Amino acid sequence: MNRLEPAPPSAPAPSGPPPGVLSAAVLVASLGYFVDIYDLLLFSIVRVPSLRALGISGQALIDDGVFLLNTQMAGMLLGGVFWGVLGDRKGRLHILFGSITLYSLATLGNGLVHGLPAYAALRFLAGVGLAGELGAGVTLVSEILPKELRGWGTMLVASVGVSGAVLANVVATRFDWRTAYLIGGGLGLALLLLRVGVAESAVFRRLERQGRAVARGNFLSLFTSWGRFRRYAKTILIGTPTWFVVGILVTFSPEFARALGVTGAVSAGSAVMYCYLGLVIGDFASGALSQLLRSRKKVVVGYLCLVAATVAAWYVVPRGQAPDLLYACCAALGFAAGYWAIFVTVGAEQFGTNLRATVATTVPNFVRGMLVLITSAFQVARAHLGLLGGSALVGAVCVGVALVAAVRLEETFGRDLDYLELDEPLA
């Protein structure tokens, strides 16, 4: 077992009442994640028109689309480690606003590209920037709110954030794809103005005053203890089905619609919008349930069972029907995947203050980065089993592994987060 020790009382906690759920930090974290999701999902919405504008057509719309999506996710994998380590060493606010700056500039650049290589390079940089936003926000909110309010705060961050996908679809339907990217970049830069009035968490400041007495942001220490590694791996695995839903079923919904014989054209942008409308409601519901049931674990297991049921329905319900029924399935999938609010909270609650930002930032990005493996497996399975059979196989594996991890997950509801994660040997 890992040695988990309370942080030494090197300085008294600030006096006064604890910050409320609607504090400045929660507001900035929520809006930051809102812009993060806008940019992250915008590519899925404008994939076809943007690639066609660059002279790409036919099967290449899927192949090059997967390449660009994987490039973005690879950037998020690297960015997750970079921003996470920086957050534990320099502070939560450094990554919160540094990441916003990088992905905003890269998104602006996406609106000006004229070739696939430049498109890919800027999606990679955007991915690096996008990697820091959610983890920084959730870590900051988790540390500044009292434990009885923590779940409500992270629920607001996740719920407000995922609604950014709705705005992305609205903008993309009213403007061309270049303008949509420019608007996203501008929103991110405007968000930097809200930095005024947001303070660093007192929990981190107490850790910082210890100087070099405690190792901070040691990413490799997650792999030098079986206990830490198991907690880390299980936390990542429980989030994997969310990106199978978004990255495969919803992103490629026009192709699935044709394979299912849907009687009418299906827009990827509308599919993403309905999915994320479901996610907003699902995040509110899962966050509220975790507070009422006083359990993260029960809610995660229940929602994963719901994911399994809605994914199975995806292959049956819309067959031969109008697009509206497929969009309804997208909304149901989104609601089922709406345990994201609990998932990111669990990531922050599983580890001590000196590793919390590293974990909270890398875990959601490793889940997003798992999409590289998911889409690669999807491509291989699709070649042998077809679009429907290949995706069903990959989805079954994702959900099955996540359920096993969730059942073995540690309960973290109400845990005091003012403690340290100390180094231990692997053996």
Description:
Its main location: membrane. Keywords: Membrane, Transmembrane, Transmembrane helix. This is MFS transporter. With 427 residues, the chain is mainly alpha-helical. The protein has one domain: MFS general substrate transporter like domains (Growth Hormone, Chain: A). The chain has 15 helices and two strands. Strands 1-2 form a two-stranded antiparallel sheet. The chain is globular and about 60 Å long. About 3% of the residues have low confidence.
Keywords:
427 residues; mainly alpha; Growth Hormone, Chain: A; two-stranded antiparallel sheet; membrane
Question: Helices and strands in order, then pairings?
Answer:
Blueprint: E1 4-6, H1 24-53, H2 60-90, H3 92-110, H4 116-144, H5 150-162, H6 164-174, H7 177-191, H8 202-208, H9 226-250, H10 253-259, H11 268-293, H12 297-314, H13 323-336, H14 340-349, H15 353-407, E2 419-421
Helix pairs in contact: 1-2, 1-3, 1-4, 1-5, 1-6, 1-7, 1-11, 2-3, 2-4, 2-15, 3-4, 3-7, 4-5, 4-14, 4-15, 5-11, 5-14, 6-11, 9-12, 9-14, 9-15, 11-12, 11-13, 12-13, 12-15, 14-15
